[in-house]
Amino acid sequence: MIRIGCTLIALFFTAGLASAGEPDPATPEGDPTRAEYWRHCSIDGFPAAACGGTASSCPPGTLMSPISWIGTCRNPVDGKRYILSYNDCCGKGPCGQAFAHRNEGDKPVYYAQKSNDVGWCMGPADAVYNSTVSIVIGVEAEDEE
Amino acid sequence: MLRPGRRCQWGLAVIGWVLGLPAALLAEVPVEPVGKSEVLPRAFDPHWVWASDGLIERLNLVDADDGRFLGQIDSGWGMPGILFSPAKGELYVPETYFSRGTRGERSDVTTVYDATSLAPVAEVAMPPKRAINPLPTGNAALSDDERFLAVFNMDPATSLSIVDTATRSLAAEIPTPGCSLAYAAGPRRFAALCADGALLAIDLDDAGQLARRTRSAPFFDPEADPVTEKAVRWGNRWLFVSFEGWVHEVDLAGDEPRFETPWSLLDERDREQSWRIGGLQHLALHQSSGRLFSLVHRGGPDTHKDAGTEIWVYDLATRERVQRIEAHNPGPSVMGYPLQFGPDWLYRFALDTLMPAIGVDMIAVTQDDAPLLVTGAMYTAGLCVYDARSGELLRRIFTGGMTAQVLTTLPHLPAAATHEAPNRRTP
């Protein structure tokens, strides 16, 4: 009985872990090419995944700006808020796909680290803006919510 | 004797000759010279609207009285912005270019345009780090005497490039650590907003060099309720409005900035009904009447850039809302062409009743005694023109661009440039 109980508990936690991760890609909040994708909650621009890149990589031939703004978005699968680094992809014209006009947590440009209006194609990626990636860089501590 | 058929031919020939004679005398189109370019009938007009189009990187000039397209200025990468020098008859446009179009060596310039020919007459090279963003105000400011232009830099360190419009040269670059943007506040003063909610005042000397830099205590909380960058000027005051609709008035006439007690654009009932300020250019102000125009919509937190459905008008002397204006659909366009159809009454009926009201993103007000309220939306090049006093929709016009993202009118009539804001009751 003890063995069966332990197995059930293990299965329960395994199932819980298995359900964590990305939402179903068939849904808007699970599809990185859609403006509604959960990680894009603070983008005011074009998601790189809709422009030939992925949620965390830039489209071919563009250069990712090393400096970025930071946002937090809630993953609908595990309910946690993740810290996102929104880096701009630079060097080709504005992509124009899947325009995301979502501004969760957006601040004015004088609060640059949380501003999606700042043109971040600067420094080594000083060129025209193309699109934006949404890179997970951590999980927000619960006491910060 | 002529046969009947021949007589008829002769008769017709005579009639044709008589009828055709005046036409022959008058009809020839005169020979015209080659190489002529038009100039505007005047340098500035209060009802002329410059519409910024970041997609095709240009400013389109249209007459809000009749919708006539008057001209354009091409402006390089970034949201085009324009500043006016009525005294010199010049226009100033900060511009950014890359040597290979979207990449390559970057050069930033302020180009000086003649205000009637719209031709470039000079350019001033600046440090290649002008801030690129979609803001309608704050990226560049002209001193009240039109001598110095301050251009906001961000790479991401922040500074101001000071352009001397008299010598058409770069006068200085002034660091503004932790503070951003530029708001004109007198003949030798610019203000900037800081990340901690403070205000930085930059005073110049007559050579455009830094004379004094003063940083205030924070006057708003940028974490809890930041003010938008899209402020409007009323005499010597700047009005900054927060995401939650609080107006922070800053008087910059004295040596030290004076901050008034914030007052709200929204009452409790408005907040219960989820009314909020928002838009890409959500404020406009008519100087001489002291009327503030605020674009509002119903929405939740983080909708500070959402399109508005109404324009609320406030009397700044009493701080009371005096009018609500419904935001009409500006009318669709595709590739710069207006999608107009049928007679005017049918077109207006279709736009106001059949098509979904998507809202408007920007508002501007002309500064004359018969002011116009102009509204636009980023999904179209169409604009709505209202009587700013009655709120009546007068007409729809088109900018000739792919979109409109910022609307700029002559910011003030010359006499109103330095008027003091009137006294009013203490809040």
Verbal overview:
- The complex is a heterodimer of chains A (145) and B (427).
- With 145 residues, chain A is an alpha+beta fold.
- Chain A is built from one helix and six strands, in the order αββββββ.
- Chain A has one helix spanning 2-19, and strands at residues 44-45, 63-64, 69-74, 81-90, 100-101, 129-139.
- In chain A, the strands form two sheets. In chain A, strands 2, 3, 4 and 6 form a four-stranded antiparallel β-sheet that branches. A two-stranded antiparallel sheet of chain A has the order 1-5.
- In chain A, β3 and β4 form a beta hairpin.
- The radius of gyration of chain A is 18 Å and the shape is globular.
- Chain B is mainly beta and 427 residues long.
- Among the domains of chain B are: 75-220, 7 Propeller (Methylamine Dehydrogenase, Chain H), CATH 2.130.10.10; 265-413, Methylamine Dehydrogenase, Chain H (7 Propeller).
- Chain B is built from three helices and 32 strands.
- Chain B has helices at residues 4-26, 268-272, 344-354; strands spanning 48-53, 58-63, 69-74, 83-85, 90-98, 106-114, 120-126, 140-142, 148-154, 158-164, 169-175, 179-184, 189-194, 199-204, 210-215, 232-234, 237-241, 246-251, 258-259, 263-264, 275-277, 283-286, 291-298, 310-315, 320-326, 333-334, 337-338, 362-365, 372-376, 382-387, 393-398, 406-408.
- At the A-B interface, loops of A face β12 and β13 of B.
